[in-house]
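Chain A, query sequence.
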Amino acid sequence: MKYFVTVGSRELVIDVEGASVTVDGVRHEAHLGPIPGTPLRHLLLDDHSLTLAMDRQGIGEWEIAWRGTRHAASVIDERTRHIRSLTGGGVVRGGAGILKSPMPGLVVRVLVSAGQAVQAGQGLVVLEAMKMENELRAQAGGVVAAVQIQAGQAVEKGQVLIEFAAPSG
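Chain A, predicted structure.
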């Protein structure tokens, strides 16, 4: 499976196949496992052994400490990245916007309400499609103008889920 990992301004493309990973085109043997009872993970990468402190900050968001330095990392799989590209990012910077359903599915949870301010990366709606839950997130801050769906509702691809207000002023 292919993952896109962003650390700072650098994005790495990582393809995982069993115990092999390809990072930006370079193949490695790798194993990552938890150290029981701690927030630490042991990474064996080729012949190098590393211990990382990993703290989950949210879905696909991690804070990783290594050699005394903390790094914020965002991890997204290929499927989720594609879904996000179809939604147009949800909140449009600098103007009103809409969030449309990227696929037919069932609304599992609505995480926001009308009048609520949202931040970039905040979860908006959880959709179930093909027995997988997909959290649709805001790409930028904004204010929810209207929520057009409710939990338990079936939606079609392209259906408007949430409308965002244009900024005042």
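The chain has two domains: 2-77, 88-164. Residues 89-95 have pLDDT under 50 and may be disordered.
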